[in-house]
Each structure stands twice: as C-alpha cells, then as structure tokens.
Specification:
Length: 308
C-alpha cells in the first residue's frame, strides 16, 4: 500500500503542476453560454454641453437553467461607469423589464430571474452636467451583465469485491452547461484504471477525487467574463455505498475570482467501503457550486463639446 500511495501522490502533484485535469471524454455539456448580451446602444455618440444621452442594453438567457441577473440601483451594476463627473443617471427616467416582468425594480439589490429564453432590456437616461472646457470632454462608458448561476456534475466510479470480478467497462460522467466548467477526475487505484477500485484488504483504501473549476477561455472576444466562485456553496454527495461530503475535501489557497483560462482544483479523499454484498457496485459522485459571472460588455464612447 505504501508504494501505491506514493504513486498516487506523485500523480496528483503532476496534475496540479500542469494546471489542468479537464478531459472531454465521457463528459456531456450543452454549450458554454448562459446569459448573452444581444445589444448595447449609446445615442448620440456626440453631444453639446447640457444635452442628454440615451443608453440601452439587451441580454437573454441562452443557457438551459435559470439565471438571476443583478441590476443594482438604477442599473449601475450593468452600467458600471457612466462618468458621474460628466453625466447624471436620472433615476426617474431609468427603466428595466424582462419577458415576464414589466415593472422596473428599484434598490441596491434589484435583480431579475431569467428562465431559459427570457430577455431583459435596460434603459438609462444620462443628463450632461457641469462645465465643459474648450477642448471638450470624453466619456468611455463601461457595461457588464453580472448574473448568479450554478454548475453541477457527476461521475460514476466502480468498486469491486476483488480483482476476479469483471465489472462494468463503461462508466458515465456529465456536467451542466455554463461559463464555468466543473469536471471530476479520480486518480487510478490498484487496478490502474481511474474509475475502478478494489475493496479487498490488498486493494484500495481511499479514492482520490479531483474537482476542477474552469473559467473556459472563449474564442470570441465578446464572450469574455470573470467568475466569482462562492466557495461556501460547494456541495458533494455520493450514492451508496460511498459516503462523502465537503468535510472530505481540501480547498486550495487560491483566488476564487477567476479570469478566462484560469482554474482551481479541489481535492477530495473518499474511503473505499468494505461492507457491501454485491460482487461489483457503481456509485454516482455529484458535486456542485454557485457562482457569479460578470460578462464584459465592453465600452462605448461619448464626446461632449462646448457650445462656445
């Protein structure tokens, strides 16, 4: 057992050093997106002092589960920079609505729930204020769409009473879609396979499970965004005969705010059971976590000229 443990430890360190355990083999996903930005408009793009600007953003839930889009007071979680020294975001002219909710929600915590296929439209009225120098002023307005989402995945493992049992050659794994990918990999046991373990005394004592969270790097620039993971929401469970919860898992000392292409790995240590009657059993391990995704909408520029 000492030799086997050493091999597993070295393999785990190799995986961490490479920074990736993600494999598409056996993993079912339904696309990388959830809430997509459909359009952003700022008109006009050139004004004189004292005039106003109208801005709008439309987004929709292109994913397969619900998403809570975070609006904030007067939509300022979405219009993150409107140059308050140049413009006033007029509260009485601000509006927001979804496919299902017509009224504008107010307050710092304002948000909307979008079911798959739902759309949200947000409109701002920005009044220019203050003096404008002869050279004019320029405002680069910044937009984003923050929303709360979740991801869940499962992986089957096989536990055999002894090495003579044939068992199942085809085990399944699956992950829900979204901008954050969750994959699970088990390190090989005494069988040499990464999904099959032996319960007898000369077999395996523990299953080392690696849970990787990945903010996939999109090919298209407009799909970029930042993931903020709620590590306290992490959950893990398994069907009989395995027994696992989050107390069996070790979180890395890492930043759980991740930009594109970044990932973190959580290691879980699961005891191989000895007390089951069947020659071979399958157990489904399921893990999930909540997160906030801040989709970057980019910037739009408004030029403000003096009337003099």
């Amino acid at each position: 057992m000492q030799s086997n443990t050493t091999v597993l430890t070295l393999l785990f360190l190799t995986v961490l050093a490479s920074g990736c355990i993600h494999s598409n083999e056996g993993t079912v996903t339904e696309g990388p997106e959830s809430v997509d930005i459909q359009s952003i408009q700022v008109t006009p793009s050139e004004i004189y002092e004292g005039q106003n600007v109208r801005s709008s953003l439309t987004a929709y839930n292109a994913g397969n589960i619900e998403a809570d889009v975070i609006l904030g007071k007067n939509g300022e979680k979405m219009l993150t920079d409107y140059c308050p020294d140049i413009f006033e975001n007029k509260e009485e002219r601000f509006s927001a609505a979804t496919s299902r909710v017509a009224e504008t929600r107010k307050g710092e915590e304002a948000s909307y729930n979008l079911k798959p296929g739902d759309k949200i439209s947000v409109r701002w009225f920005l009044q220019q204020q203050g003096n404008v120098p002869l050279i004019g002023k320029r405002c680069q307005m910044s937009f984003s769409v923050p929303f709360n989402y979740s991801v869940e995945a499962y992986r089957q493992v096989q536990i055999k009473q002894d090495r003579s049992v044939e068992g199942s050659p085809n085990l399944q794994s699956e992950s829900s879609s979204g901008p954050l990918t969750l994959t699970m990999e088990t390190l090989p046991g005494s069988t040499g396979r990464p999904d099959t373990y032996i319960a007898e005394e000369t077999g395996d004592e523990r299953i080392q499970l690696l849970v990787q969270l990945i903010n996939e790097k999109p090919q298209e620039e407009y799909r970029k965004g930042v993931v903020e993971i709620d590590r306290e929401s992490f959950s893990i469970r398994a069907t009989d005969p395995l027994d696992v919860d989050r107390s069996d898992c070790e979180f890395p000392d890492a930043d759980f705010r991740m930009y594109q292409g970044k990932s973190v790995v959580i290691q879980c240590d699961i005891q191989v059971p000895q007390n089951f009657e069947e020659p071979s059993v399958l157990s489904d391990i399921t893990a999930g976590i909540d997160y906030k995704y801040i989709k970057d909408g980019g910037t739009r520029t408004v030029e403000v000229k003096t009337r003099g």
